[in-house]
Amino acid sequence: MQHNSVSADCALLEVRVHDLRLAASIGAHPHEHGRRQMLRIAATLTLTALPRDHLEETLDYGHIVSFAEMLADRHIALIETFARELAEACLAVPRVRRAEITVEKPGALANGLASTRIILDKPDAEWTSRVPPDSCKRMTKLEVGD
Question: Which domain holds residue 35?
């Protein structure tokens, strides 16, 4: 039996949470203060390590939810600020190299959907969003005996 393997140094893993709905203290207008409004959040986090079926080697989805819930509990004027602060909180986790956050505010417009999206990379990241170098694309055959 043959298996293909890739060096963990060359692999990128995405952890995603989508359609997270939170009632948040959000808004820049006076009528938005003192009441909660629904936000819909999507987070895609890129990690540089491949977990070996151990939770501590990846990122627990619950951490992303907890970060967002903490932000929802304090008043923030702009969804752009909410998205940036959530991305920064996620990037504080050592394994996370990139955070892509989308925040939608369904009740902001009578006709349409207000949203923002931010993508933040760690400044010291040794990878880019480009295709990995040729040495990372090579597959290695692993022979497994009967």
Answer: 2-124
Number of domains in the chain: 1
What is the pLDDT averaged over residues 62-77?
94
Distance CA 9, CA 48 (A): 7
- The structure's pTM equals 0.77
143 occurs within a structural domain = no
Give the C-alpha separation, 32 to 77, whole Å: 9
Record the tokens describing residue 64, joined without a space.
């992303």
Domain membership of residue 40 (yes or no) is yes
Give tens-digit pLDDT for 105-116.
Answer: 998 889 999 999
Contact 91, 82 (CB under 8 A): no
Strands 37-47 and 2-5 come out as unpaired
The answer to whether 118 touches 100, Cβ cutoff 8 Å, is: yes
